[in-house]
Design brief:
Helices cover 74% and strands 0% of the residues. With 78 residues, the protein is mostly helical. Helix 1 packs parallel to helix 4. The chain is globular. The N and C termini lie far apart (41 Å).
Amino acid sequence: MKNILLDLPFSRKCEKEADYIGLLLMAKSCYNPEEAINLWRRMSDKSDPSPDFGAFLSTHPSHQKRIDHIRSWLPEAK
């Protein structure tokens, strides 16, 4: 139970932070940061749909959440 209440939200926060830093590094390295959205779209297309409770028990943000976050960070990355 401790894992569900304490560790999983922390893991998602770390993944979100890693996505943010990765996007900034991508842009700094002269890669198009908008391509990160296409990557997560392809990942979403290839993955099985998760049950409704899947996001609650997941250690990673959903593909759509990652896309939404990336869109909000694009102006800064550019």
